[in-house]
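call fold(seq) -> tokens
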Amino acid sequence: MKILILNGPNLNLLGKREPEIYGSLTFEAFFEELKKKYNTIDLHYFQSNVEGELINKLHEVGFSFDGIVLNAGAYTHTSVAIGDAIKGIETPVIEVHISNVHAREDFRHTSYIAPNAKGVIAGFGLQSYELALQSFL
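ret:
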């Protein structure tokens, strides 16, 4: 099984940015833990702060991977283009969020990804990614 974890803007700052919301662990360290725990999955990781790069990556793997775990960050609430990219590919996508976006600002309650995703997991910290991986197993 081949799965991509795809992170959007500002998620490169995990471990530094608002640790009271996002925790103190870097995503790279967390990803290494996931690879050890789920060593039967061919796990890949990509992060970008650029919307077009996220779309390009969805197009690149969206017909050959078994699953995509996507945390599009703020693009979740603004990017029709990412939603359309997900609609255009075959690989199922799970939308994830570290925080409970529904307990935050009103604008975060709308997702342009969810209508085209297999499912949505939010509010369980970094464990949201692990729950998404388990959904593919």
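The radius of gyration is 14 Å.
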